[in-house]
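Progress note, sequence design subtask.
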C-alpha cells in the first residue's frame, strides 16, 4: 500500500500566488490613476490657457479725441468797444464778438476775429451808432498755470462805423491785445481779453478822402471757447 501524497503544492501555489497578484493589481491602479490625473490636468490646461492668455493681453485702446491735439478754437462772447471816432459820443457800445484760431504747433496760431456792436452802455450818445470789426493776425499762446493759459495777438483789418454821418465810413484798422484762457474740459473753456484798436475816420462829417486823424478804441470781450 503506497504512502498518500499530501496536496500541498497547489495550496502553496495559491498561497504564494495570492500575495503576488495583489501588488500587481495595486500597481495597475496607481498607474491608471496617474494616467487619469495626467489627462484631466492636460484637459484643464487646454481649456484655461487660452482664457489666461486672453485676460493678460491688454485690449487695444481706441485713440480718444479728448487726448488728441485740436487744431481749431472757436470763440463767441460779449464784446465792448469805445466810440472815439464819433463826435459827442459819451458811451461805448456792447455787442457780439467771435473768432476762430488755427493753431500751428504748441505756441503759434492765426486768428480771424469779427464783431458787431450797437447797444450803448449808457443812453448818453446822441447818435444811434454801430461798429463792425473785421480783423485777423498772428497769435502766440502758452500755458500759464494748470488750466490757465495766456495769449497775445496782433490784428489788422478794417472797422466800419454806421448810423452816423461819417464819410468814408470804413477805415483801415489794427492793434494788439492779450488775454487769458481757462480750460473747463478737453473742448470747452473760457476766454477774456482786451486790445486797443486804432483806426482813422474824418472829424468833420462828409469830409472827402481818407482821414489822417487816428483814433484808438479800447476793445474787450469775454465768452466761451470750443476746440475742434
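Output:
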Amino acid at each position: 500500500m503506497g504512502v498518500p501524497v499530501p496536496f500541498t503544492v497547489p495550496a502553496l501555489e495559491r498561497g504564494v500566488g495570492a500575495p503576488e497578484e495583489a501588488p500587481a493589481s495595486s500597481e495597475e491602479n496607481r498607474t491608471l490613476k496617474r494616467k487619469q490625473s495626467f489627462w484631466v490636468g492636460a484637459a484643464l490646461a487646454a481649456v484655461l490657457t487660452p482664457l489666461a492668455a486672453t485676460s493678460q493681453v491688454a485690449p487695444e485702446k481706441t485713440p480718444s479725441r479728448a487726448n488728441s491735439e485740436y487744431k481749431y478754437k472757436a470763440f463767441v462772447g460779449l464784446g465792448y468797444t469805445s466810440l472815439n471816432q464819433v463826435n459827442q459820443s459819451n458811451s461805448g457800445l456792447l455787442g457780439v464778438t467771435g473768432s476762430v484760431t488755427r493753431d500751428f504747433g504748441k505756441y503759434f496760431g492765426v486768428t480771424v476775429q469779427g464783431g458787431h456792436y450797437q447797444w450803448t452802455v449808457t443812453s448818453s450818445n446822441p447818435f444811434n451808432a454801430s461798429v463792425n470789426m473785421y480783423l485777423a493776425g498772428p497769435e502766440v499762446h502758452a500755458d500759464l498755470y494748470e488750466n490757465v493759459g495766456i495769449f497775445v495777438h496782433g490784428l489788422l483789418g478794417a472797422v466800419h462805423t454806421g448810423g452816423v454821418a461819417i464819410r468814408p465810413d470804413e477805415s483801415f484798422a489794427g492793434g494788439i491785445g492779450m488775454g487769458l484762457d481757462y480750460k473747463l474740459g478737453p473742448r470747452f473753456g473760457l476766454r477774456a481779453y482786451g486790445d486797443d484798436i486804432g483806426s482813422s475816420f474824418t472829424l468833420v462829417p462828409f469830409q472827402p478822402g481818407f482821414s489822417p486823424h487816428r483814433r484808438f478804441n479800447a476793445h474787450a470781450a469775454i465768452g466761451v471757447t470750443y476746440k475742434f
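Residues 7-22, 63-67 have pLDDT under 50 and may be disordered. Work on this subtask will continue into the next period as scheduled.
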